[in-house]
Amino acid sequence: MWRFGPDRRYVMAISSLDPTGDAAARANITQAVKTMFPGGKI
Predict the structure, then answer these.
(1) What does the pLDDT look like over 1-42, one tens digit per residue?
(2) Distance in angstroms (rounded) separating the CA atoms of residues 35 and 37
(3) Cα 21 from chain centroid (whole Å)
(4) Whole-angstrom Cα distance, residue 28 to residue 7?
(5) CA-CA distance, 27 to 32, in Å (whole number)?
(6) What is the 3-class SS of 1-41, one letter each residue?
(7) 29 burial via Cβ count (<10 Å: 0-12, 13-18, 19+)
C-alpha cells in the first residue's frame, strides 16, 4: 500500500491473482506501478 498526494492522504492498493507464484506476482505488480508512475513520481 502506498500513500501519496498532499499530506500523503491518498492510499493506493494493488493486488494480483497471478498464478505464477509469489515472486513473479511481486515483480509484475512492481512493473505495473513503474509503468503508472515512471521515474517514481506521483
Answers:
(1) 566 666 767 777 778 888 888 898 889 888 888 888 887 666
(2) 6
(3) 17
(4) 28
(5) 9
(6) CEEECHHHCEEECCCCCCCCCHHHHHHHHHHHHHHHCHHHC
(7) middle
